[in-house]
Design a protein that fits this description.
Elements (H helix, E strand, L loop, with lengths): L7 H9 L2 E8 L2 E12 L4 E6 L4 H8 L2 E7 L9 E10 L3 H14 L9 E14 L7 E5 L2
Antiparallel strand pairs: 1-2, 1-4, 2-3, 3-6, 4-5, 5-6, 6-7
């Protein structure tokens, strides 16, 4: 059975933004990091760069189930929007690496000057809050 992609409102929100917060866990400690990302709609994944020796990458390599969020900053309650996500942290290889790199460099051309590693979060669950649809309105997507 083919996996159904998230609905357009979720996809549009993710594509509109460019900073995610990634949460990782190691032993009994939690950690968060903020990263520039690009969304690969075809693969339903978030692509970002980070050095291999960072705490969040080190922890995600040990426990690849990660969570995170992408939010719209606003103080207007009626405009609150954001997503919380879960997914699998992977290092893309071969064809997926080439595709990920192309996506990332199209959005962030300055990254060609950086010596860093590409990473992918393959999304498995998304919960979007969108108060424009009604206070506390949630849209849920789960990988089948």
């Amino acid at each position: 059975m083919e996996n159904i992609k998230p609905e357009k409102r979720i996809v549009d929100f993710i594509k509109k933004h460019h900073v995610l917060t990634l949460a990782t866990k190691s032993e009994n400690e939690l950690w968060c990091a903020n990263c520039f990302y690009v969304y690969d709609e075809e693969e339903n994944s978030l692509i970002f760069t980070s050095d291999i020796d960072t705490r969040h990458v080190s922890e995600a390599l040990k426990n690849n189930f990660v969570a995170g969020s992408i939010v719209l900053e606003t103080s207007v309650i009626g405009k609150i929007q954001g997503i919380q996500f879960q997914g699998n942290f992977v290092k893309p290889e071969n064809k997926k690496l080439k595709t990920a790199k192309t996506h990332y460099l199209l959005r962030f051309p300055f990254a060609t000057l950086m010596n860093t590693t590409l990473w992918v979060v393959e999304l498995t669950y998304i919960k979007m809050t969108d108060n424009r649809l009604g206070f506390g309105k949630k849209l849920i997507w789960k990988k089948s």
